[in-house]
Amino acid sequence: VILSQHLKKQGEFIWRLANGIDSSLVEAEPAANKGYGNSTTTPFDVTDAETAKVVLLALAETVGSRLRKDDVKVSVISVGIRYSDLSYCSHQRVIEIATNITNEIHQIAAGVFDELWNGKPIRLLGICASMLVPVTEPRQMSLFELQEEKTQSEKQQKLDLALDSLRDKYGKDIIKRGSLY
Fold it and tell me: Which pLDDT tens digit goes with each residue over 158-171?
């Protein structure tokens, strides 16, 4: 009674949950992800773009791996920055060709970062990928995209899948990019 007097419907809802009364439907399968993201608070203030882009590469690795595991690609990539004064900003980019390739995610995120960063010391960096499409959807090539670029993209895809397989079998630290050291 006290909760409902002070908090109205929310108080009544809280009382019901506290007493084990819930009329929500139980779903047998969890809902599909609408987006994938990863962020990290750095142990020190990042003050240069090179270090920030290395952090973004590590984040792109995990986001890309999760996308490939769930057989999806993304069409929107966003970057979030929390500065040392705890202010936060983010920006996103819609990409023409959906991807789940780590290098492509990183390149796009690095471009967004360059547009977004104001030069202040960074405490947290994050990448979020959304607007999912199934991996079975064909890769739409632009009219001007060269055959060499298409082949390079296919090689990157195969490399990422091979790395994912190794990490699944032997642990995530079995192989790392040299630039992360």
Answer: 888 888 888 888 88
